[in-house]
């Protein structure tokens, strides 16, 4: 065994280790580029402050109220806040309102078809009075 084979062994071992680590230089570069991109995924259009990709709307809103208190149109900072209601951050109120409207509509439809309870009761009361 000459020196050359030892070098080969060492190289092979290094490659094996790198494979064990799971990432090549290229992958590492791509990962860090993605991390950098994610770290600055959202940007305030007014002051250009950047936010993580997973920032939540309330945090963006906090930035607006802290840094741009005069702003009334949130989308001037973050277009993604279009349609966001700070009083209804999860859209629960809007959902409940839509549900109530649907129920009202269903009740109305029920009333329109067939005799409704009120008129039946009315007729019954009139009969009873006779
Ligand atoms: Zn800002």
TrEMBL record:
<dbReference type="Pfam" id="PF12907">
    <property type="entry name" value="zf-met2"/>
</dbReference>
<feature type="region of interest" description="Disordered">
    <location>
        <begin position="106"/>
        <end position="130"/>
    </location>
</feature>
<protein>
    <submittedName>
        <fullName>Zinc-binding protein</fullName>
    </submittedName>
</protein>
<dbReference type="InterPro" id="IPR039713">
    <property type="entry name" value="At2g23090-like"/>
</dbReference>
<feature type="compositionally biased region" description="Basic and acidic residues">
    <location>
        <begin position="12"/>
        <end position="34"/>
    </location>
</feature>
<dbReference type="InterPro" id="IPR039438">
    <property type="entry name" value="At2g23090-like_Znf"/>
</dbReference>
<feature type="region of interest" description="Disordered">
    <location>
        <begin position="1"/>
        <end position="34"/>
    </location>
</feature>
<feature type="domain" description="At2g23090-like zinc-binding">
    <location>
        <begin position="43"/>
        <end position="81"/>
    </location>
</feature>
């Amino acid at each position: 065994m000459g020196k050359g084979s030892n070098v080969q062994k060492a190289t092979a071992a290094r490659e094996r280790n790198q494979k064990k680590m799971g990432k090549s230089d290229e992958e590492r570069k791509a990962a860090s580029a993605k991390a950098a991109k994610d770290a600055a995924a959202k940007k305030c259009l007014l002051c250009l402050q950047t936010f993580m990709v997973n920032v939540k709307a309330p945090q963006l809103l906090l930035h607006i109220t802290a840094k741009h208190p005069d702003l009334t149109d949130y989308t001037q900072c973050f277009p993604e806040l279009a349609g966001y209601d700070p009083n209804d951050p999860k859209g629960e109120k809007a959902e409940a309102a839509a549900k109530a409207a649907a129920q009202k509509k269903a009740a109305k439809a029920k009333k329109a078809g067939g005799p409704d309870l009120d008129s039946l009761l009315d007729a019954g009361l009139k009969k009873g009075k006779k």
